[in-house]
Amino acid sequence: MKFEHINKLCSIKHAFSASDETHDIFIKAMVENYKFQLERQPYIRFLADKYGIEVDNIHTLEDVYKIPFLFVETMKYNSFCSVPKDEVHTVLTSSGTKGQKTQSFFDKGSMDRLQTLAFNTFDSIGYRSSVPVHYFIMSYDINTAKNIGTSWSDNQMMNLAPAKSKHWVIEWDEKSQKFHFDVNKWANKFIELSSDAPVRLLGFPAFMYQMVEEIKNINGKIKVREESFILAGGGWKNHLGKSMGINEFANYMEENIGLKKGNIGDTYGMAEHGVPYCSCEKGHYHIPVYGHLIVRDPLSMKIKDIGEEGLLQLVTPYNIAQSNLSVLSTDLVVIGENCSCGIKGKYIKSIRRGGNKKHKGCAIAAQEILKNS
Hints:
Elements: H1 4-10, H2 20-40, H3 42-50, H4 61-64, E1 70-71, E2 90-93, E3 103-106, H5 108-125, E4 133-140, H6 149-157, E5 163-173, E6 178-181, H7 183-194, E7 199-203, H8 205-219, E8 229-233, H9 246-257, E9 264-268, E10 277-279, E11 285-286, E12 292-296, E13 310-315, E14 326-337, E15 346-353, H10 362-371
Parallel strand pairs: 1-14, 4-5, 4-7, 7-8, 8-9
Antiparallel strand pairs: 2-3, 5-6, 9-10, 10-11, 11-15, 12-13, 13-14, 14-15
Helix pairs in contact: 1-2, 2-3, 7-8, 8-9
């Protein structure tokens, strides 16, 4: 089956070029995906019938927003896989070591689209470079953690600059059958390689913070090469588990390893959705054309206005292998528009975790490794 509009949407090179034309492509792509899901998922059909949604009546973004969502917690217990097993190309999980896992299914076409839209998003926001770098990946070693979503994402980010070397710092220990982080080993390796070429740090900020603390103990403050870069993703906590803001983190890195604030980027996303939302120099997470975000009142479920906080709903049509084209999260966000960084369109102005229990995803599981390091 061909997905003309889905493919067209995901091949848009300039990720932040929102227009009436891209909105039209997005709407048609959502209709393509929704028709596919309605044919294969009885629960999706049940929701459509319950709320009186006719796919042939979806013509505007407002119509798209009426497509019944799946609650993110539901996807931790139900796969909603919409393709035969022999067509499943990749399965990624959301959890690091413990906790209920979300499984994300992709056929080859959907995986290709995800890789394309992710690369275009990172490129469009300015994360790409032609300068060879030493990578320090603050995530689970992909040689062991082949299907963990954060490791897969970090592995994709290494396409953004040529690699002189690659170092996965959360290593698997065969004896204990656990992941571990040898902070002294990696602090010394970082000191050694940072004088040879620019460095790129990817992954969980808490591990970056602890490694720099160890670098200070060993060598005092250092200065990395000019083209060095951080692409963070995961929980914003220091090694003691205390929350840090991106600006506080940036100040810390600039002061202690000389890495410029403007070279620190962050990404927000979730396994149940897949589209990356990248931060600009103002610390705002910009929304690419491949996804739309809706903010809903937690009680009435009515759509909130720009600048008002509410539950985040994430919408994207790229993955036909799973019925996750519209997902309601437990995160509370505020959406802004036309950031002063110069990127036009909408962005996530603030994010905070909602819900009455802690969802044990990759970042939380990784935090437990830090406590034991």
